[in-house]
Amino acid sequence: MIEVQLLAVQAIREVFAGANLTEVLRNIWQTGSHLTPQQRGAIQDIAYGVLRHYGQLDAILHKLLNKPVQDKQLHYLLAVALYQLRYSKAPAHAIVDHAVSSSRKITRNPAVSGLVNAVLRNFMRKRTSLPDQIRNDDIARYSYPQWWIDKLRQQYPQDYEAILLAGNEHPAMILRVNRLRTSVDHYQAMLDAQNIDSEWLWDTALRLSRPVAVEKLPGFSEGLVTVQDAGAQFAAPLLDVEAGMRVLDACAAPGGKSTHLAELAENIELTVLDKQEDRLARLKENFSRLKIAGYQLVCGDAMSPSHWWDGQLYDRILADVPCSASGVISRHPDIKWLRRPEDIDHFAQTQTAILNGLWPLLQRGGKLLYVTCSVFNEENDAVADKFLTTHEDASRLPCSHGMLGRGQLLPGSHHDGFFYALFRKN
Ligand SMILES: C[S@@+](CC[C@H](N)C(=O)[O-])C[C@H]1O[C@@H](n2cnc3c(N)ncnc32)[C@H](O)[C@@H]1O
C-alpha cells in the first residue's frame, strides 16, 4: 500500500501544480510497468477520490492540525490517508501504519512520522463529529472552489446544490449501441449472457450498473458499441442528417459524436476537423474500430477555414467547442481545481470566434449545432444569444428532445451536463 499511497500523492501533487489527471496517470502507468492491475485501480481510485472530496479533506486537516503542514507532499499524504479512512474499506490500522511508513519515504525527519500517526489517530477518534464542525464552510461542504460555488448559486438558485453534488458522484458507464450493426434488444441480451447488468435509458443509450473494462464488453472490438455519456448522445440526432448531405464536425476528436453521425445516416459526405493532430490519431482508431470509412480527415483551426476549407458549403455543422468542462466534473474532478475564474471568459471568446468562423460555411437552410459540456451561462446561452444578435441570417430552433428544455442539460445520475443550441441559416 505504501507505493500506492506515494504514487497517489504524486498524482495529486502534479494536478495541483497544473497538470491534467488523465495525463498524469498515463505517465505513472508508463514508468510503473511493474504495477499490478489492483495497484493501478487503487491509485486511480485514491487520486480521483481525493480530488472529488479535496475541499472537505483539506478542511478536516486544518481542524486536526495546530498549524498547516508546510511540505506539500506530506499534506497530500495526509489527505490520501484521510480519504482512505473515510471512503475505503481498507482496515484503518493498515492505512495509518502505511501512511507512517510512506511519510518516512518523503522525509527523514523523525518528528514527521509521529505527527502523521497522531493526526490520523485523532481523526479516527473524532470522525463522527468532525464533518458537522465544517458544515458551514462552502468549500468544505461541496469540495469546489468558492468562485465556482458562487457562480452556480447565482446562475441556478434552485439547482446549484444538486449540480455540485452530482459532480462528486462516481460517473455511470454508458454505452451507445451501433444500430448499423445490432439492436439495443439484441445487444442487451449479449450483455445478459456475460452477466453484465444494464438498463435502457433512451434511443441507443444503455447504462451499466457497474463499470466494465471495454475489452470485456461483447463485440466492442468489432464496433457493436461505443462508450459515450447519454447526454452526449443527444448531439447527432439533433442534426437530423440524411444520406447525401455534406456534414462537417468542426471540433471532432476523439470522434464520439462524429461516429454517431456516421451511424445515423450512411452515405453522408463527412468531414472531421480538429486542431490537434494527436487527438485526430485517436479519432482514426475509433473510426476504424467502428468500420466507418469514406470520411475526410482534416487537421485545422475552425476559426480560420481559409486554411483548410474546399469552398463547398455544408448542410450540417457540428461545433462541439472547447469549454470549461464544468458539466463533466464527475468524470474529471481535477478540472474544478485546475480552472481559474478568468478562464471562463477566455473560453467564451474562443467559442464565439469558432462560431463566427464556421457560419459562412453553412448552406442556406442548413443547420449548425453548438455544443458545450459546460453548465456556466457565459459559455452557453450568453454565447448563443450574442451569436444571434450579430448574425441576422441565423435563427435558433428548439431542441426537440424534451429533456433538453432551453438546451441546458444539468448533470445527474444518468448523464453529464451539456448545452445545445441549434441554429438554422435563413
Ligand atoms: C469537446 S472536444 C470534442 C469532443 C468530440 N466532439 C467528441 O464527441 O468526441 C473539443 C475538441 O475541439 C478541438 N479544438 C479546440 N479548438 C479548436 C479549433 N480552434 N479548431 C478545431 N478544433 C479545435 C480540441 O482539440 C478538442 O478535440
From TrEMBL:
Domain SAM-dependent MTase RsmB/NOP-type as annotated: residue spans: 163-426
The keyword Methyltransferase is assigned to this record: yes
Family annotation (SUPFAM superfamilies): NusB-like, S-adenosyl-L-methionine-dependent methyltransferases
Record: residues binding S-adenosyl-L-methionine: C251, A252, A253, P254, G255, G256, K257, D274, D301, D320
A molecular function GO annotation: rRNA methyltransferase activity
GO cellular component annotations of the record: cytoplasm
E.C. code: 2.1.1.176
Family matches, as Pfam families: Methyltr_RsmB-F, NusB, RsmF-B_ferredox
GO biological process, one term: regulation of DNA-templated transcription
Primary residence: cytoplasm
Catalysed transformations (reactions): cytidine(967) in 16S rRNA + S-adenosyl-L-methionine = 5-methylcytidine(967) in 16S rRNA + S-adenosyl-L-homocysteine + H(+)
Signal peptide residues on this chain, from the entry's feature table: none
Keywords attached to this entry: Cytoplasm, Methyltransferase, RNA-binding, rRNA processing, S-adenosyl-L-methionine, Transferase
Family membership noted in the UniProt record: Belongs to the class I-like SAM-binding methyltransferase superfamily. RsmB/NOP family.
NCBIfam families: PRK10901.1 (NF008149), rsmB (TIGR00563)
Protein name (record): 16S rRNA (cytosine(967)-C(5))-methyltransferase
Organism: Nitrosomonas europaea (strain ATCC 19718 / CIP 103999 / KCTC 2705 / NBRC 14298)
Lineage: Bacteria, Pseudomonadati, Pseudomonadota, Betaproteobacteria, Nitrosomonadales
